[in-house]
Amino acid sequence: MFQRCLFLIQMLLPMLAMGQTTLLSPVCADPSRKQSCLSAQEAMSLVLPGSASSLSEVRPGQRKFASLVDFQPLSLTGVESLALGISEVVEIDTATGTRPDCRACVPKMIISVLEFAQGRWKLAAQSKELDGVGGVGQLRIDLKTVDLGRRRLLITMAAGFTGQGVTETGNAYFLASLEPVGRLSRTVIDLGFINTGSYSCGSGLGQEEWIIETEVLVLRRKDSMPEFLTVRTDLPCKGDKAAQSSAPLVYRVNARTLKIERAR
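RESULT FIELD:
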């Protein structure tokens, strides 16, 4: 048993050294056709060509490396086959020559959409480097997608943080468009953040302490842009005071700034 475990460890170490990209499953436009399958390593060559994928591959003068941490198929009306890739971009700690290791450190991320068309995979839309979601030097990806029509996709990522006795949770929203959005074309846009919870019970902040929960419902408008309806519920941390729920709150995407705003 010990020898078998040692053998497995020896097999896994080189894979781990190459980064998480190696461990991700391929995406196939047609599982019966091997040539339609795209591995995570092949996706990286389309998403970030020429970039180092691990610390061991960093060349002199380079200050970053990138690897896929999430790679999955997508379904979008009117598109043959899509894949979604989330890449973490790690800026090397210049003092130690290693990746940062602290509770507040989160790598940047790049969101990419790849499309299978005319017998090959190609990059269809991509974001710039965005603020990552996670902690302790790692991305933590928990995402959902909504088909908005007109070759547009809403990507939702759960996010949150704790500071000074208060825990905040919410959703970060991104719009992936394979068609132009205003002056932007074939891109992934950071739409913003909607708070979905706040917990300060026992924080000793000297204020009335509540748990605030928000349920978010995503609707699709005629222009294929998302609209968000939320209901906030205030719950007392203790005692028998009844919970209080707000009337529905409406958030829309500003067509000029392409950011989520509270509708007036």
